[in-house]
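> forwarded from #structure-qc
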């Protein structure tokens, strides 16, 4: 006897037999286009670095940095954030801010060091990947959004790219290439460290600001246009040093606060001792 099937006997089905929800297909196109542009800039950086055109390769990391800032902000403004967008953005960042700077710096200045330069480039790429993986884990843990734990990978890539862009002719001597190890390894160590770096994601662009802020932004744009090599290097290394300056300031304030906290109590204790001495003499 054939088992009756069809829409007429749907009421006989159990609750557990309900069809499963299908995976939602499709992606939000607008933020994904910016992420795709970010990845394309990293790819172009690698291609131009392999050709030996470092002056054209380095700026693509800067373009990827701008696109990386825009895709997340646009996704939040338009309400098109998704789990796919987060994962896609992380994979694009590994290429643009991990692999591309490592290959660019190796072809530009680490190649004369042989295996040592090869190892330094790989360490930087590995640190960038671990930094992004840790950021994905910590992003939903309720940490202070004003700070990054560890140097952000786009900022670390900016240190390498600005250095190459400032001197795009390449290094071919072993002794001249030794300082490049510090240029690569210091940002790599900072990415996997627990040092806090200031985050600019909390800046509210919709609130009113004084007119001087707009003038300062215009002045920065003019400075980058007039002297891009020097200004970009100064900006990249200033952000790198800002974490250490902030640590020094916070420790100085902490020590000052501790000293000022102990002084009033000591003074009060001394005053009590002086006030009790005459009463005991009486």
């Amino acid at each position: 006897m054939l088992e009756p099937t069809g829409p007429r006997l749907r009421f006989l089905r159990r609750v557990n037999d309900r069809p499963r929800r299908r995976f939602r297909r499709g992606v939000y196109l607008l933020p994904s286009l910016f992420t795709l542009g970010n990845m394309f800039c990293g790819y172009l950086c690698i291609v131009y670095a392999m050709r030996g055109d470092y002056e054209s390769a380095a700026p693509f990391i800067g373009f990827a940095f701008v696109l990386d800032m825009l895709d997340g902000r646009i996704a939040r403004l338009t309400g098109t954030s998704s789990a796919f967008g987060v994962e896609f953005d992380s994979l694009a960042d590994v290429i643009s801010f991990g692999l591309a700077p490592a290959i660019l710096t190796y072809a530009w200045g680490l190649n004369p060091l042989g295996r040592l330069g090869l190892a330094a480039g790989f360490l930087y790429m590995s640190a960038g990947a671990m930094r992004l993986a840790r950021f994905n884990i910590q992003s939903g843990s309720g940490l202070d959004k004003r700070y990054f734990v560890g140097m952000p990978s786009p900022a670390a890539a900016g240190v390498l790219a600005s250095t190459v862009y400032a001197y795009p002719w390449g290094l071919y001597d072993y002794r001249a290439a030794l300082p490049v190890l510090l240029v690569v390894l210091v940002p790599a160590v900072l990415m996997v460290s627990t040092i806090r770096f200031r985050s600019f994601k909390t800046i509210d662009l919709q609130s009113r600001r004084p007119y001087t802020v707009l003038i300062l932004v215009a002045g920065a744009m003019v400075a980058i246009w007039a002297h891009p090599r020097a200004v970009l290097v100064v900006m990249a290394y200033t952000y790198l040093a800002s974490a250490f300056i902030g640590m020094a300031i916070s420790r100085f304030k902490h020590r000052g606060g501790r000293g000022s906290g102990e002084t009033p109590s000591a003074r009060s204790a001394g005053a009590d001792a002086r006030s009790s001495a005459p009463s005991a003499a009486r």
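QC bot note: The longest strand covers residues 147-149. The first helix runs from residue 29 to 51.
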